[in-house]
Structure prediction request, 1054 residues.
Amino acid sequence: MEMIAILLNLVVFLLVAPLAVGLLGRTKARFQLRHGPSLLQQYRDMENLWAKHSPDLSIPSAVFAIAPYMALFCYILAGALIPVVFINDSGNVGSTFPGLPGGDLVLLMYLLGLATFAIALGGMDSGASFGHMGSSRSMFVHVIVEPGLILSIAALALYWNTTDPVSIVTQMQTLGLVGVLTHPSLLLIAFSLIILILAEAGRLPFDNPATHLELTMSEHAVGIEYGGRHWAALKSAEMLKMLFLLTLLIDLFVPGFVTPLQTTLGLASLAVIAYLIKLCIAILLLAVWESLRGQLRLRAAIRPALLAVGLALCSIVLTFTSHIFLGGR
Amino acid sequence: MLMSPLMLFFLSICLPFGLGFLVVFWPIGIRDRRRLAWPSLILAAIGSMVAIGWAFYFWYHPSNTGTIIFSGLQPGMGLPALQWELSVDSLASLFLLLIGSGSLVVSIYSFSYLGLVPTGARKSEKDAHGIAAAYNLFVGAMLLVIVANNVFSLLVCLEVMSLAFGYLVLFRHNKGRDMGKEHWVPGDRRARKLAIQAYLISSHVSLVLFTAALLIRGGQIGNLSFDAFRHFRITADPLTFWLAFVGLAIRAGVVPFHIWVPLAHPSSPTNTHALSLGVAIKVPIYLMILVFFSLLGPIAGWWGPVVLLFGALTAVVGIFYAMASRDLKTALSYSSVENVGIILVSIGLALTLASTDLRSMPGMLGLAGLALVAGLFQVVNHSVFKGLLYLSTGAIERLAGTVEYRWLGGLFKHFPWTASAFLIGAIAIAGFPPMNGFISEWLILQSLFASLNAFAIPGLVLSACTILIATALLALTFGLTAFAFVKMAGLTILGEPRKNLVRTQREMPWFVRLIFIVLSGICLMFGILPWPILALLSQVTQSLGMPALALQGQGNAITVSSRAMVGGAVYTSLLSNGWLWLLTIAFVVLTVSVVLQQRTKRKASLKTPLPAWTSGIPYDSTHMQATDAYFGYQIDVLLRQDREDSSLQRASENVPVIPKGVPISDHYQVMEFFQQWYNSGLASFQRFATWITLKIQNGRIRIYVAYTVITTVGLLTAWIVWGGR
Prediction:
């Protein structure tokens, strides 16, 4: 049963990813009074790129070719580890499929790290200036994000007594659909994670995905030597990363309607529709934010990252105080 | 007389390693003394295998009380006799196994590194026999340190170990002298001399402090055997704790006492560097566990937080300078400092949880066991992946002739075995799944989270704060580790060579490749099948009185669960390793398919491969690839407001006592705050000493007469008061 839930989650996750990026692009275009590409354009791009051969380059070794696929696999795995639409863990460990269910936030964080690490190594292997510059920059963002991320996970672990996303989702559902608004500790973690997710996904104000000016970009600079199928893998990885991070945010803070698979067909389709609506709202908010904000200098990006650390610490202090003085959350 | 196992052990360790040391002094019939390294290294390998065998024996038959091997003379009236007493418990047998297997691998590898087995165009190392002899002494003494059970035998073995390694630190010094004028750069000469000076001073200061701590404790007990220490149930006073901690911290390279590590270790040959920083640096950690958990009596509440904070600071500082340094050996030395910090964090956490105030609370001892298991797993893992990294660094040094980033690059295409070994080591040490580093980092983070949950009661707010600080610093460390190893791997093995490689150079010989495969295999094995080794480690903590109840393992998952303090809730987290299996399979499939595809493509392709895009300018691998100074620039900038700040200095301006920083390019260096502090401390001490000397010896005869009178009167008074019984 868990296996089916994981597979269904993955199908939704993989199908929605290009749509999400398309929606984001189109909304941003509307804000700039342009028409923007069609919502389905990303699917066509993918079809086009995956069909191509990748060029044979003289400098890189095998690491260069392995890196984007490794990153792509990491994000697919990350998508399988969280309850996207259906709850993928029935609670009893390893009941049907030994050792598979049960994700863990620390494992998820390290999977994201592994993907960044792989792409950065690929960039180093290209042997060209932009790849090296991009590697250095993207790893720098990784460094400044890490403390906030682990402290946010610590805050979540302190609040929910676990780092298992499935368990957090089921506990969170008892608080109601917008329960996060009435629980200040959770709200603080949510803000902290939103900042970190912007950094990790390479969005404004940390990195501007729309520019192709080599002096300002970091994520795109890493992959500048990639072409054809390798580039398709890298681009898909990027899409999946954004969708994964948004889904994680939805799961951790507004997980209403995420159901176990043993429900009726009606509830199941409601879960899918609710997920799509939540995702659309998140993407619209992201588009508004990106239309309003400019990019920070890379070294000034430490400030929002420190803010995220501060918010996570505040949340921990708040949970502690309520534990000590109120004897509960 | 029936021989006890410990007696047999003592003889069977002393015999091969002692012979291995003595054989190089063979007086007659040898034209080329380097050949003597052969029997010496073979004896070291035999001795290591014997040690591994004994480790397994003692695992099943631990002798929990000491056995006196022989009794020496009594140095004076009322002083205890200098006995040689040994004992082995399961912790000691774990470390015996670690040292034995580490030294077995290094002994075999040394045949290639020292050039005894011809590889390519290299000749054998000039001082191969000297290195082999010192190596034997080093390993033998290290094994005996682990089993020592009284103060005397421990101190003798520690001293022998220090001196043997001191000879190895002279390696670069000797080598520079032998290579002639062109390699004898004055600044470099100073650095080489400094290595041995810094090493000898710091190891002896550490020995003095540690001895003082043990003697104070022994004086209170009235016995120097560790059995008596263990049964003395009164907590040691703060002075003893600090002396023992600082003494061991200097030896382990804990910040701010770490400055000798990056000076001394890169000067030693890379094969023994693997042993000294991969395995031998765990000896002070073993001694810390021994001393704090059993020798100094019941654990005081403040010891744990002290160790925890020092550990977290060590981790961050170590990895920061690892990222800033400009050659592989220095960077890896700093990275060992970082790992010592990570291990100390978990030891500190275990100390906090097992202290007298907390151990009676429900669930605390179980958590302490979990923290210690995490720390010991990190000890084991660090030996494996750091060994792999050092040995492949040694191979890089042999194959490319240098370990400086500015001459390296592009090794992957020419030496795929060595480069893959380095890359796997880098993934493992950066703590990414599915390698073993991930499991130990996961366990350490989970033990921190679980104890944070357990500390949510009014009395423990301060401990919770230390845990929070440690978590934040460790998080920064984990991020920086990934950065540092992208830099190391990226600059050395990826991209295009910055210097023309010798094309005729062949890969390392088959046994070195076998070592690489075995070590990488262990990295992966411990990552995807962690439970067997974790079960062994929890037996070790159980024998120390801290059963790891918070850690359960099924065949396919590790569960951490402990009681949180509030409302009887239970903290649970679970890591199922099916995902790690999937990741491994995907990685293997990807690698195989990409390599096969490239091979077929290379055979079939008619077109020449495309060059890198360089705006039409001819490609230049030295100027179009990132330099080491550039790569760390982003993080370097964070610590300063602008570039003219004092932390970035012209390296060549003034010549300090200890070099002030880590050079990041020919002209610039990153300031090591601690080295600067030591420098200014030394300088002001020197000024003070001069001042006081001038005051005392001011040249006036009247003052000198007054000294004589004061001394005579003082001595007479003392004799009248105390002496005239």
About this structure: Residues 129-160 of chain A form the longest helix (32 residues).
